[in-house]
Description:
Strand content: 25-35%
Helix content: 25-40%
Shape: elongated
Strand order of the largest sheet: 8-7-17-16-13-14
Amino acid sequence: MGLLDSFERGLERAVNGAFAKTFRSGIQPVEIASALRSELNKKAAVVTRDRILVPNTFTVQLAPADDEKMAAIGPALIGELTEIVRTHAASQHYSFAGPVSVTLQRDDRLSTGTLRVLSHTAQGTVSWRGVVDIDGTRHPLAKGRTVIGRGSDADITIADSGTSRKHVEILWDGERAVVRDLGSTNGTKLDGIAISQAPLPADSVIAIGRTEIAFHVVPRATPPLPETPAADAVTRMFDTGSDAR
């Protein structure tokens, strides 16, 4: 366990049931992150054996001085906090009823160093987006076919001499994905197993050459994109089976 992990665990034990705690030096982003995770754990409700529902809309109330300090960080802070909520929910197998939303709100009644988290479940229409993370950069997948390789004509180009120009493709239909090796020289592995073609589960890792490609499925509130012939091909693959070896 790292120093930050130890600090966050101790902090979470210190935050009370209302998630209001006074820190004389003012609120730091790590305290907000810990309060959000604690709010998820507190509000988790078992709906069925396979589904634990948690809130998806969060309002973090801050004192004026703390709100001003957080606002200076900019939109990146909201993005990081939202990702922390999603990551913690995934690690605990929690489910959301709609898209995740985190907002910061000034509350003149709070003193500096005090925070409060309000949350509720807001239903909404959720569509899903497939993304791949490569060397710290996130690439959204188009609905249909995405080719990855070192060639300039690939949809996602990677600087790895151990990969072929068109090494692998991912077919994404808006809900499910298939990965297929395109006859590469050095082959393709999915979670450490060599494959020619296989269903691609969320949070799995494709290895080509010296490059690791992490595949994730993330929610978004926009309507789903129109079907394409390539997207139809993904459905046909799931219906007819795939080859994984």
